[in-house]
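Weekly sync, protein design subgroup
Attendees: M.S., D.O., the rotation student, P.L. (late)

Item 1: inverse folding check
M.S. brought a backbone from last month's batch and wanted to see whether the design step gives back something sensible before we order anything. D.O. pointed out we never logged the input encoding, so this time it goes straight into the notes. Structure tokens as presented (492 positions):
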């Protein structure tokens, strides 16, 4: 990436939306601008997990304002990620569709483990280099992430469904800060957190760090009260609870260092943090500067090349995990990529990379059963947490894997999406050409595109030399006749 390039991350959290803009230089990203708005999207989630119209409108209004600041940024320079509230909401698709249009960039809903990985990236990148074993804790509005890692590598991650907004709504709904409410909130939090204990036990780390809203707010309150800056201790946390109990109600809480937008959710956030101290036997927690949004910025940087893109490594991991034929996967990927490049297909390097990943993964469903393996492969991609990939990206790959085999007329395909259709055509042609599971003879084979018409050119003697391949290609052309696109053969 060029020195001086601007990068932007949009974090659609359950309590706040944040926009972080940084400038890349000498391997690091320096903050240029930071915007934050308290949206309380998670507070608008009802018992049936539907976002209220008012909550969605607050989110859309914020994204429209962020869009003005992002004017002129290329798509490769911006990534917007959504977390637990939009993972839960049944009507999240409606919010994301309009929100993406208003923002001007697609919004990715990331899984809990992927959110945790990005948080660790953000925290570790802003810490001094060290070989210490790290525990990173992030209490969000509706989820809490725990990560164990070393240097820049997350080694164990989990995402649990509890957070400051959810616990405040459930246990402090009327704003009353009572001993009984804190006790009930703590018991409920420990019940959720206990499932993480087998991995996140006290001997698994050397230093514990906390990031983001609740932990940052508690750290500022304790520092303002004279505690060591950047550290949360058990004694300091217990003292804070006593101060909240004396206030008796969220509306009466007046603490130096506590911002107004955090007052309504301080009860829930502190109760979750206390439960973490109890269960993990924490004595102190260091307040980290990095968070999810910084992790997104560094992940954008890593996506610049195949060599540093974590998604490429994740694809290799899936191949190994499901025992797919690696040689065939690479063979199909090479042929599909060559055809895609010949056709001058739109979408650029990223579309080419996506096609390569899909081609490598097209047979991962064989481990389940050879019959219908394309459907099994799609199911795996739809239901597997894969580092580096957002959920929409995995669904995109799954659609291609499902459609690479079988009759096109039976598939629900958006034929107006030229990039996806061309990726599918190249994948299906590559699978046909590589049917014998050896490198095919491609001398003279060339794919041309003119609008919705694709022509595969080749020599007449090629068809005579490879009759089974020629037969499969003719069958493929017949299948495309029943679609808005055309695939033809031109043997000369």
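Designed sequence read out in the meeting:
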């Amino acid at each position: 990436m060029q020195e001086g390039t601007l990068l932007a991350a949009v974090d659609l959290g359950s309590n706040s939306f944040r926009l972080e803009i940084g400038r890349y230089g000498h391997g690091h990203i320096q903050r240029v601008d930071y915007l934050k708005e308290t949206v309380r999207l998670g507070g608008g989630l009802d018992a049936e997990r539907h976002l209220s119209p008012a909550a969605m409108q607050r989110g859309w209004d914020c994204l429209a304002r962020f869009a003005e600041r992002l004017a002129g940024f290329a798509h490769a320079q911006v990534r917007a990620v959504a977390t637990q509230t939009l993972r839960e909401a049944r009507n999240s698709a409606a919010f994301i569709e309009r929100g993406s249009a208003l923002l001007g960039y697609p919004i990715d809903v990331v899984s809990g483990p992927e959110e945790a990985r990005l948080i660790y990236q953000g925290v570790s990148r802003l810490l001094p280099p060290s070989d210490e074993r790290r525990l990173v804790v992030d209490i969000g509005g509706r989820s809490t992430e725990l990560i164990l890692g070393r240097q820049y590598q997350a080694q164990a991650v989990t995402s649990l469904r509890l957070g400051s907004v959810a616990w405040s709504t459930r246990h402090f709904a009327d704003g009353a800060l009572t001993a009984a409410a804190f006790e009930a909130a703590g018991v409920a939090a420990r019940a959720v957190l206990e499932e993480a204990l087998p991995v996140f036990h006290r001997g698994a780390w050397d230093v514990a760090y906390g990031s983001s809203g609740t932990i940052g707010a508690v750290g500022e309150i304790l520092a303002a009260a004279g505690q060591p800056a950047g550290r949360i201790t058990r004694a300091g946390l217990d003292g804070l609870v006593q101060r909240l109990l004396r206030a008796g109600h969220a509306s009466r809480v007046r603490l130096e260092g506590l911002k107004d937008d955090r007052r309504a959710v301080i009860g829930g956030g502190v109760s979750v943090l206390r439960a973490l101290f109890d269960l993990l036997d924490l004595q102190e927690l260091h307040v980290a500067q990095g968070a999810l949004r910084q992790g997104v910025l560094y992940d954008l940087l890593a996506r610049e090349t195949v060599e540093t893109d974590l998604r490429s490594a994740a694809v290799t991991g899936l191949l190994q995990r499901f025992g797919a034929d690696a040689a065939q996967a690479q063979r199909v990927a090479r042929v599909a990529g060559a055809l895609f490049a010949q056709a001058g297909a739109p979408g650029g390097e990223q579309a080419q990379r996506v096609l390569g990943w899909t081609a490598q993964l097209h047979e991962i469903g064989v481990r389940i059963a050879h019959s219908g393996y394309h459907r099994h492969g799609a199911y795996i991609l739809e239901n597997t947490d894969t580092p580096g990939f957002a959920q929409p990206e995995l669904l995109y790959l799954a659609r291609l894997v499902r459609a690479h085999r079988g009759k096109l007329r039976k598939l629900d395909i958006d034929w107006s999406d030229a990039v996806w259709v061309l990726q599918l055509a190249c994948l299906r042609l590559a699978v046909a050409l590589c049917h014998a599971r050896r490198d095919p003879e491609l001398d003279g084979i060339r794919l041309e595109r003119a609008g919705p018409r694709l022509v595969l050119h080749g020599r007449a003697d090629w068809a005579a030399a490879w009759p089974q391949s020629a037969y499969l290609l003719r069958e493929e052309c017949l299948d495309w006749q029943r679609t808005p696109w055309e695939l033809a053969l031109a043997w000369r």
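Discussion: The mean pLDDT is 93. DSSP finds 19 helices and 14 strands in the chain.
Action: P.L. to compare against the previous round before Friday.
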